[in-house]
Amino acid sequence: GHVTETGAGAGAGANINIPLPPGSGNGAYLEAMNRVVIKALDRFKPDLILVASGLDATSHDSLGRMNLYSDSYRAMTSLLMDAAARLCSNRLAFIHEGGYSSTVTPFVGLAILETLSGISTEVIDPFSVNVRKHPWQRLQPHQDVIIKQAERCLPHVPLG
To answer: For the whole model, what pTM was predicted?
Structure first.
């Protein structure tokens, strides 16, 4: 949804959209997580963090058209684990939804499971080697504009 769509009625302010443009990579996602998502969780103080874990933001997914790789998902999972430990006694659940690249999605899913479990299988994601080197992995100015717009929604997030 658009960044201005923040909920209506009793749910006003309860929704935050961060419509990152196609091609957004690790830098944009981690900035959005740190500057908006984690701060919204801190403000809301949930009893449980439920993640609709879409794996369609990878570099090889034809629908998502983003540029994430397995380590991007590891980092986001770690941020959510830290938030869950701090806010809701580690109550964190991931539900898989999306991920349409049959070659990349298993590596990304494994990265999430490894992070959640603390167990490393030492399986290497062969797709991430080149993707992590691309210059669009850094936060771009046009992506930062969108994240700043989403940050303005934070005062409207209901207090927990």
So the answer is: 0.95
